[in-house]
Amino acid sequence: MAISSKLFSLLFLQLMFISSLSNIAEADGLSSRFYQYTCPGLEYTVAKTVALYIKKQPTLAASLLRMHFHDCFVRGCDGSVLLNSTPNNQAEKDSIPNLTLRGYNVVDAVKAVVEKQCPGVVSCADILALVARDAVRMIGGPFWEVPTGRRDGTVSISREALINLPPPFANISSLKTSFLSLGLSVKDLVVLSGAHTIGVSKCSSFSNRLYNFTGKGDADPKLDKYYAVALKGKCKPNDQKSIVEMDPGSFKTFDESYYTLVSKRRGLFQSDSALLDDPDTKAYVVLQAQTRGATFAVDFAESMISMGQIGVLTGNDGEIRRQCSVVN
Ligand code: HEM
Ligand SMILES: *[C@@H]1O[C@H](CO)[C@@H](O)[C@H](O)[C@H]1NC(C)=O
Ligand SMILES: *[C@@H]1O[C@H](CO)[C@@H](O)[C@H](O)[C@H]1NC(C)=O
Ligand SMILES: *[C@@H]1O[C@H](CO)[C@@H](O)[C@H](O)[C@H]1NC(C)=O
Questions:
Q1: CB 107 within 8 A of CB 124
Q2: E strands of the chain, at which residues?
Q3: What pTM, to 2 d.p., does this model score?
Q4: Domain for residue 313, yes or no?
Q5: Which one in 8, 129, 176, 205 has a CA-CA gap of 20 to 30 Å to 108?
Q6: Which atom of ligand 1 is nearest to the CA of 189?
Q7: How many angstroms separate the CA atoms of 266 and 142, rounded?
Q8: Nearest-CA neighbor of 42 among 126, 125, 103, 150?
């Protein structure tokens, strides 16, 4: 008797938990239980496959997170970033900002396993959203419920990536415009920028800040001068190839140290430094730096759910690709 009532209250608590999560998770036609009947083991299968790759190569997590961001900011989260170019069309994959995107093979491997399990049911856009979430979680990041039900687009245009992805030299007003135009908030901007707590960058993405920034042979005055010297040691003028850690020392761990760096004027990109140029984004940076990221994990989860809903195709729009790199 005692046991069964305990069991009941446990079940009840669990139900409350699930329904409170799905309140957050259900929006724009996506649902946290979209594949409940059509592909019940999906999340387990995805997590297991992602784990195989991330264990071997933890640095792939950063690239997979960035890939989901690039997907969502260009034509919505519709898997367009995964499509290959064709003889008549240069795809997003082959645009300049793709730079170091790696890990397409992880998405393809997950898709292949999922296709065996539930053929023709799960979109590549959903798979990428799940893969990014799992990869982040596996390197110490937060967990979030990924609402699913996205469908795959059939169009991918290189030039659109260049137009829609904010460049590393973006200033605060153009960053805000970019995020707001996609239905995200200024808070989402400062929270999602925290993704730069992991990963690496090519020198060419920021070396304009190191050499002759204002035409007087100087570095960007918004960059800590000692840090500028250290970066010059890693990136000689016109070095297009070398890479540096964006969060030196903990670039493989998803933590809040990004905000500590930015608050010390050691953000790598102008777009990172720009977060100090707006009172609201600056306040957030300072708060996270001072509180060791008191709310960062929760905020990041929330903002990722919002980002994952940008321009999604649902219902009968688009298709369920059989292979993520080509349209059916
Ligand atoms: C706010 C505007 C943003 C700008 C201007 C920006 C720009 C960049 C640039 C230039 C790189 C380096 C690429 C290279 O040189 O190899 C980079 C890397 C990265 N970005 Fe962003 N980004 C932004 C927002 C985001 C968001 C919203 C996310 C994810 C939620 C994200 C995740 C990442 C990650 C994880 C890396 C490291 C990739 C790797 O190690 O392979 N970024 N970003
Ligand atoms: C990115 O685009 C360049 C051309 O701009 C291309 O050479 C490269 O293979 C692309 N990278 C990936 C991973 O597709
Ligand atoms: C910010 O960048 C945009 C786009 O490059 C430019 O048009 C604008 O003048 C810049 N704003 C400021 C305040 O520098
Ligand atoms: C720095 O920039 C100025 C103005 O564009 C130019 O005249 C000068 O030659 C540059 N110096 C170097 C070392 O490239």
A1: yes
A2: 200-202, 243-245
A3: 0.91
A4: no
A5: 205
A6: 1
A7: 24
A8: 126
Q: What pLDDT score does 8 carry?
A: 35
Question: For residue 3, is it within any domain?
Answer: no
Whether residues 160 and 176 share a domain: the answer is: no
Write out pLDDT tens, residues 69-91.
Answer: 999 999 999 999 999 999 999 99
Ligand nearest to the CA of 81: 2
Question: How far is 319 from 313, CA to CA, in rounded Å?
Answer: 9
Residues of the chain with pLDDT under 50: 1-25
CA distance 10 to 7: 5
Q: Are 67 and 324 in contact (CB under 8 A)?
A: no
Residue 306 corresponds to which tokens in the numbers above? 């919002």
Q: How do residues 2-29 score in pLDDT, each as one tens digit? A: 333 333 343 333 433 443 344 344 556 8
Within a domain: residue 243? yes
How far, in Å, is the centroid of ligand 3 from the Cα of 215? 18
- Tell whether 61 and 181 lie within a shared domain: no
For a pocket test of ligand 4, which of 208, 212, 213 has the largest count of ligand atoms closer than 8 A to its C-beta? 212
DSSP 190: H
Catalytic status, residue 70? yes
Judged by its nearest atom, the ligand closest to the C-alpha of residue 104 is 2
Q: Which domain holds residue 206?
A: 172-306
Q: Does 279 lie in the same domain as 221?
A: yes
Query: Could you tell me how far CA 320 lies from the centroid of its own chain?
Result: 22
| Contact in structure between 170 and 273 (CB atoms under 8 Å) | no
Query: Is 19 a domain residue?
Result: no
CA dist., res. 234 & res. 243, Å (int): 8
Tell me what pLDDT residue 99 has. Answer: 62
User: From CA 11, how far away is CA 5, in angstroms rounded?
Assistant: 10
How many domains does the chain divide into?
Answer: 2
- State the catalytic residue, choosing from 60, 66, 68, 70: 70
